[in-house]
Specification:
The complex is a heterodimer. Chain A is an alpha/beta fold. Chain A has helices spanning 12-16, 55-61, 79-88, 90-94, 101-104, 123-130, 167-182, 191-200, 211-219, 228-234, 257-271, 286-292, 307-316, 324-327, 364-375, 412-426, 454-457; strands at 2-4, 24-28, 31-40, 45-53, 107-118, 136-143, 153-166, 276-280, 299-304, 330-334, 349-353, 379-385, 428-435, 446-453. Chain A has a seven-stranded antiparallel sheet with strand order 2-3-4-1-5-7-6. In chain A, strand 3 (31-40) and strand 4 form a beta hairpin. Chain A starts with a strand and ends with a helix. Chain B contains 29 helices and 34 strands. In chain B, strand 19 (388-394) and strand 20 (398-403) form a beta hairpin. The two termini of chain B are 70 Å apart. The chains are: A alpha/beta, B alpha/beta. Chains A and B meet through strand 3, strand 4, helix 2, strand 5 and strand 7 of A and helix 17, helix 22, helix 23, helix 26 and helix 27 of B.
């Protein structure tokens, strides 16, 4: 709902190109948008845009993308509302008004109410996005379910914006920021969308202190692969493993931790004289990239349990574009550490970089057997977080893990007792290295163990 | 003239160009059995006579021959084969696939060959070529046997060729025609008293065999170490002579023959005792023993290929094959070349990797207790070392043992029962070895009840990730429940699903009696519970009291909570007396776990409650705005009415999901509603009627009413209108009180109808409940009419396939089959679940 107290208020009808005494309806994708005026007096005029989505048609049309069949789209203000805004108020958004040109160019007092704004990021982010644009922001967050207060807050905010703003700008702010806050875009993002963002953001986005956040969130494709099947199977978000860690950067480190980790692994592999190397749990291929740039590795095999992640790695490494001799050194393949895979035997080294903590502790023996007994490379490099160090991450809640998919995080003692037992059981020698700048009391942020097969060492 | 050829042989035809090899091959073999060098030349070069293509042609020929031999198919090589190096390649190929090479030589006069070639316009090479072929052939004739051809047949004239008749001879190890029943007996090692006792225990009568016509099968190593090798041999040789027994050769028999023949052998491992005892038994007996032991076959394939016996075991690729390495593997096993701390050879764990269908019984390595490993069992329980002499009854799979009278021979390596082993030796149990190849790629699982069920590579890939990242240990994961289809879409006003459809469907499938079970709104849970802590290590090869997992194999609880819940289930099973009644140490229950919010908490918050919150934030504001506009005279009446209607359906929607949520604290508030006893030791219970299952569930409820929730049921006769009406009324009552709905099942449980397997259950969900599936507004007629276009066919087909896979898994568990065979079925259920079928069904 957009209201103005600019006198005469009914002139809002001219600016919006919609008559205050009529209700007008416009077809939009999977539904209808209605414009009507709950109030239209000289002193105050309010225009309302309401969309009615057809839930049956919506599921039918978009079965592949909307993974949930009952969803908030018919009720929430998000990307669909933005699309409707543009469909219904196309001319108003350009700022053109032949009947009242001077009014269209003028900032007028406006109040905008979005009763069910979808904003997972919360009211603070909403304020950070709207306030620099001259809006006064107020809002209340709806509870998930008033009958179950334990469940906490929902992602919906009854939002009121007030300020003195040109109407065309106000509409454009909404057009860009509603989907940015919503986070679930209901259509695919392409170059077109980026152009649209530039057009709609003209004159205000480039000066906005949060412009990067806005652009990222507007253009973000929340999921590169909507893997509906997997989601059903996993009974939860299978992309947890792809999610960003809750903390990435350890304090007081000269370089990002991930880079130091890759460096330490590389140094260990070089030290072992490894030429044929397995990257077990290669994920998106960060380590593979480092290994590929080292000609001394003649064969590099990246394995992951997730076929989607391997696709991602293949694209990130641009394997279709590297020269043939380089391409031949690298293989990507799906495998699972809880199953034995005899084709992995005979390699010089295997790396498990930040992998074991993604395996349930009760399943570790299966992994140990598959790696140390069946694959049995000369050298095994394992890295894992040092949980003692977690207190140094200010943003990490006490007792929380660094990543949503971590099944455990170990202290130095826990890691060493596991590693030494594995080494003894399978005939390996083991030594430990710190990764990252060590805290005198808590140790390094990441711990690393190098296992060397006894017959190879002899 | 009869030319005998061993089964699965590689047959090399040898003869000059024009000697009639191709004609001979055509006459005696099927076209697909014959690989001709001319044909392959044509395949790779479009010209059968292009000698420049020979190299490529032979590579391709050898490749195809290799594939045929790997599959155990008789293969005839139609090429001149007059040169030794060409034949050497064939001998190598035969050895590689452990089949016997045979040569058939067509040694026909030169003039005949020349005349035949002259009549063929495409063969324009001169007589000198044929002469050279003939010279090579003559030279070869003397060396063929030495080169490695086990049989050589030479045909010297047109008459001999014309009279030749091919006879395929089964291999000596091929005794598939013997179907038993058998009593397979482990290493005896001269323990005559124990053998007599065991044979008596098995029911054999001395000198008269078994009254029920059973056959004893000895796994070799009858001799050495023990007190009375001649006595054992007398018994066994007599049984073999009378047709009461079969014997495979052990490494000790092999060595004994060499020693008896005066060959230089190291007289150790108890050979001295045998030689001494045999010396006292007289020359005549010794000669008999020599010939008996020398004639022993190294392995047998029995009972249509379902049973294989070999002294030291045998990997599947060697079953029914013949070669030096097959024999040595059968006698000595596949050793790594290393020796252990006692100086004994370290053996390849072939049984751990065994994936064959045939049961393999073997001895050779003394073990304190027999144990099934992937369908194989070692029956050497170290009698001579003071252990036991053990037999397995086949096909009953019953183990029969007699204790050793004393320690007859000191073992170098201690033979101790597991409880006496030092903790370090038992603490680490080898994890279940499932290979990636057991589950990945395109797969087909043979099921008893629904034929072959296929899984695509993509489905396997999705399941691999879920299984590996989220599921419980596969050793616990004996079963996954199938998906369940709703009843066909109803046309009853205001309804998408209605009991009438379900009853009608079962009636037309030929099912008269159905049971309606209340559908609890919780999460499907499979409960594996063990009676004692000693059960899991023995039965499942892992520790713990059991597990409670979801329909995708994910554990519901971790650590202490899991143990606490399982302890209560176990106590209830004990109180209900089910352990002894079902004669089992473990039970697998199919159940519903409540509340729904326990597992689905995140889903409810993110999804169901969110939709409610968004609607409740938006709709009242919209209603108010519309009312204001209306009061101004704007024509929004219809829109207002619609919005008000939507507001009330959202209320109903919120009420629907709230019913299935309640707070839990630890295990307080957790309820379990079991409705089937899926399996117990040695039995799957899918053929017991549902009344049996529900009665057992009731006894559990009686034992612990705070944990177990009963399932309300009603039996309906689908052919009786009153009964059907009563069923409908019952459903209406159930769902109008907030129930999710009901499941209708054939009362007899597993049922076959006119068109194969009948759906094991069909769900009929309540009208209000379906709001959380189809959205708050689904009951509006304009929505309902479109939603009725849904089709349940695909879901139905999927449900049956998953059902059959689940049953197959349970039956394999009941038969004590190896883990990989069970896991294959369970994994396939999960893989099929990735099928993109409409999730609202």
């Amino acid at each position: 709902m957009i209201s103005t107290t600019h006198q005469p208020a009914t002139e809002l009808g001219f600016l919006l190109h919609k008559h205050p005494d009529r209700v007008q309806s416009f077809p939009i994708s999977a539904g209808t948008a209605h414009v009507f005026y709950p109030r239209a007096t000289e002193r105050e005029c309010t225009a309302a845009l309401m969309i009615e989505l057809d839930p049956v048609a919506m599921v039918r049309d978009r079965r592949d993308e909307l993974t949930q069949y009952v969803n908030d789209r018919p009720y929430a203000a998000g990307s669909q509302l933005a699309v409707a805004l543009r469909a219904v108020f196309t001319t108003a958004m350009t700022g053109r008004c032949d009947a009242r040109p001077e009014l269209a160019a003028q900032a007028i007092p406006l109040t905008i109410r979005v009763p069910s704004l979808s904003a997972r990021a919360g009211l603070d982010v909403v304020k950070r996005l709207f306030e620099p644009l001259g809006w006064t922001v107020s809002g209340t967050v709806a509870p998930l379910d008033p009958e179950f207060p334990d469940w906490g807050e929902s992602r919906y905010i009854d939002l009121t914006l007030s300020g003195t703003v040109r109407l065309a700008d106000a509409l454009r702010h909404l057009y860009v920021l509603l989907p940015a806050l919503d986070g679930t875009k209901h259509y695919w993002v392409n170059q077109d969308e980026a152009d649209k963002l530039l057009r709609m953001g003209e004159g205000w986005l480039s000066e906005h202190p949060e412009r990067e956040l806005i652009a990222k969130r507007y253009l973000v494709h929340r999921r590169v692969y909507v893997n509906y099947a997997l989601e059903r199977l996993a009974e939860s978000d299978p992309d947890e493993v792809l999610a960003e860690p809750l903390v990435t950067e350890a304090p007081d480190q000269p370089q990002p931790l991930a880079v130091q980790r890759q460096g330490a692994v590389l140094a260990t592999l070089r030290g072992a004289g490894a030429r044929r190397v397995l990257d077990l749990g290669c994920g998106g291929g960060a380590l593979l990239k480092v290994l590929m740039s080292e000609p001394s590795f003649t064969e590099i095999v990246g394995l992951d349990v997730s076929a989607r992640v391997l696709d991602l790695a293949e694209r990130r490494l641009k394997l279709d574009r590297v020269p043939e001799h380089a391409r031949e050194r690298v293989t990507l393949r799906q495998s699972a550490l809880t199953y034995t895979d005899p084709s992995l035997s005979g390699y010089d080294a295997a790396v498990l970089m930040e992998v074991i903590e993604h395996i349930e502790e009760e399943r570790l023996p299966a992994m140990e057997h598959a790696v140390f007994s069946v694959a049995r490379p000369g050298t095994v490099v394992v890295t894992t977080p040092n949980s003692e160090y977690n207190v140094r991450f200010e943003t990490l809640a006490a007792g929380a893990f660094r990543h949503a998919d971590h099944r455990f995080e170990w202290t130095r003692e826990q890691f060493r007792s596991w590693a030494s037992a594995v080494a003894a059981r399978y005939g390996y020698a083991v030594r430990y290295l710190p990764v990252g700048v060590e805290d005198p009391d808590l140790g390094p942020p990441t711990q690393l163990a190098v296992f060397t097969a006894k017959e190879a060492a002899a | 003239m009869k030319l005998t050829i061993p089964d699965m042989s590689l047959v090399a035809l040898v003869g000059a160009s024009g000697s009639g090899k191709s004609t001979f091959a055509r006459t005696h073999f099927a076209p697909t059995q014959v690989l001709s060098s001319d044909t392959f030349r044509g395949l790779v070069s479009d010209d059968e006579n292009d000698q420049a293509a020979s190299k490529d042609a032979f590579e391709a020929l050898h490749f195809v021959a290799g594939k045929r031999l790997a599959a155990g198919r008789l293969t005839v090589i139609d090429a001149t084969n007059v040169q030794a190096p060409d034949r050497a390649a064939l001998i190598r190929l035969a050895k590689e696939h452990d089949v016997l090479p045979t040569a058939i030589v067509l040694d026909l006069p030169e003039q005949l060959c020349v005349a035949r070639n002259a009549s063929r316009p495409d063969r324009d090479f001169g007589t000198h070529v044929i002469r050279r072929h003939r010279q090579n052939l003559r030279r070869s004739l003397k060396t063929l046997q030495r080169e490695g051809f086990r049989r050589v047949h030479v045909l010297r004239s047109e008459e001999e060729v014309a009279e030749a008749e091919i006879v395929i001879e089964p291999l000596l190890n091929d005794r598939r025609e013997l179907t038993g029943p058998f009593d397979v007996i482990g290493d005896v090692h001269g323990c005559r008293e124990e053998l007599e006792e065991l044979l008596a225990e098995l029911g054999y009568v001395a000198g008269a065999g078994h009254p029920e016509g059973r056959t004893a099968v000895f796994l070799g190593d009858l001799v050495d170490r023990g007190p009375d090798t001649p006595g054992v041999l007398r018994i066994v040789m007599d049984m073999v002579e009378r047709g009461y027994a079969l014997v495979v050769c052990g490494n000790h028999e092999q060595k004994l023959v060499r020693a008896l023949r005066g060959r230089r052998v190291q007289v150790s491992h108890g050979l001295a005792e045998s030689l001494e005892q045999l010396a006292a038994a007289g020359d005549e007996f010794r000669a008999k023993v020599d010939s008996f032991c020398d004639g022993l076959i190294a392995h047998y394939v029995l009972d249509g290929g379902k049973l294989v016996v070999a002294h030291a075991g045998l990997p599947e690729r060697f079953h029914g094959r013949a070669s030096g390495r097959v024999r040595s593997t059968a006698l000595y096993g596949d050793t790594t070349g290393e020796t252990d701390e006692y100086g004994l050879p370290v053996r390849q764990p072939w049984a751990r990797d065994y994936r064959g269908n045939a049961m393999v019984l073997y001895g050779h390595t003394p073990t304190p207790e027999v144990e099934w490993v992937n369908g194989t069992m070692c029956l050497d329980t170290g009698c001579v070392f003071g252990g036991k002499l053990t037999a397995l009854r086949y096909p009953e799979r019953e183990v029969v043992s007699v204790k050793a009278k004393k320690v007859w021979y000191e073992s170098i390596k201690p033979l101790l029962p597991p409880e006496d082993l030092p903790p370090s030796a038992t603490r680490h149990r080898e994890p279940a070895t499932l290979e990636l190849a057991d589950v990945t790629g395109k797969r087909v699982v043979q099921t008893q009840h629904h034929g072959r069920v296929g899984v695509s590579a993509e489905q396997s890939a999705a399941a691999l990730e879920v299984m590996s990242r989220f599921a419980t240990d596969p050793r616990w994961l004996l079963y996954l429940p199938p998906t369940m289809s709703p009843s066909a879409t109803s046309t009853v006003e205001g309804h998408l699903e209605h009991p009438g459809q379900a009853f009608a469907e079962f009636r037309s499938a030929g099912v008269q009696s159905v049971v309606c079970e209340e559908k609890h709104m919780g999460s499907r849970a499979v409960v594996l519970v063990c009676r004692h802590e000693t059960v899991a290590p023995r039965r499942f090869g892992t520790d713990g009291s059991g597990v409670v997992y979801t329909r995708t194999g994910r554990p519901f609880f971790r650590g202490g909570e899991s143990d606490a819940l399982l302890a209560r289930v176990r106590d209830a099973v004990t109180a209900a007396g089910l352990w002894s009644e079902l004669d089992t140490g473990w039970l697998l229950l199919d159940a519903e776990l409540m509340p729904w919010s326990l597992k689905a908490g995140q889903l409810i918050a993110d999804q169901y409650a969110s939709v409610g919150a968004a609607a409740q934030a938006a709709l009242p504001v919209a209603t108010e705005a519309l009312a204001s506009a209306m009061s101004r005279g704007v024509d929004v009446g219809e829109l207002l009415a619609r919005t008000e209607a939507r507001t009330s359906t959202v209320e109903a929607y919120r009420a629907a999901y709230r019913r299935y949520c309640w707070p839990t604290e630890g295990l307080d508030g957790v309820r379990l509603a079991p409705f089937q006893v899926l399996a117990s030791e040695g039995a799957a219970h899918h053929e017991r009627p549902h009344s049996w299952h529900l009665a057992l569930a009731e006894r559990l409820t009686a034992a612990d009413p705070a944990l177990f929730t009963p399932t309300r049921t009603l039996t309906v006769d689908t052919t009786d209108e009153d009964s059907v009406a009563a069923g409908t009324a019952w459903w209406q009552e159930l769902t109008s009180a907030g129930g999710e709905g009901m499941v209708v099942k054939p009362a007899a449980n597993l049922t076959r109808g006119t068109r194969g397997l009948v759906q094991p259950g069909v769900k009929v969900r309540g009208r209000e409940y379906l709001r959380i599936i189809y959205g708050p507004d689904y009951t509006l007629e304009e929505n309902l009419s479109r939603l009725r276009e849904r089709s349940v066919n695909r879901k139905r087909a999927l449900a049956l396939r998953e059902y059959a896979l689940g049953l197959e898994a349970l039956q394999r568990v009941a038969r004590g089959e190896p883990l990989w065979r069970v896991h294959e079925c369970v994994f396939a259920v999960l893989a099929l679940e990735s099928d993109p079928v409409d999730p609202r069904l």
